[in-house]
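The authors assume throughout that readers already know how a fold can be written as discrete tokens. Each protein is reduced to its one-letter sequence and a matching series of backbone shape codes. I therefore recommend that a typical entry be quoted early in the introduction. For illustration, here is how one protein appears when written out as sequence plus structure tokens:
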Amino acid sequence: MSKKEPMSIALKAKLLIQGEYLLIGIIFLVVGILKLTGVFPTNGYVRFRIFNFVTLLGSAWIMFDFLWSTFSKARRTKVDYIDKILVLPAGLAFYTFDLICLVRWNDGILPYAAIVMGSVFCYIACVYIFQAIYHWFKPTKALLAAIAEDEKTAEERKLEAEKAVEENVEKENDDA
């Protein structure tokens, strides 16, 4: 029987991250489809307004993060630009819809909310599923940096262990 080698830290991390991307994508897809089909209706004026303010802040962050990644060379070296570009349409869609909802502060907008929310949620699901596949073949810069740091610390631990063994051998030789 052949003995299986343990899974590397890099492979474990890739599997975990891709699993998270897929899980989030599936959740957004299910919620988006439920919104579009009317199974998960948009009702509750107060909850809808809270959703508007939360998505307004979230979409503003998405646009700010895109601009930050675009104009900051230091930020661009740390993030994957494709991830920032792909979520930008969702941020713009929610930002526009939230501004319309704030201007038309009445219940007449609720029927359109399910269409917008469901569509954007399905788009976000597609983005996350794409990222899961794309980043399997081309890992994120953050993952690569973490793996490099882990390998660096592993090498340092190995060198420290070798040094400790050498010191123990020298000590034993001196005692003998």
In short: The first helix runs from residue 9 to 37. The helical segments are 9-37, 45-71, 73-78, 81-103, 110-137, 141-175. The radius of gyration is 25 Å.
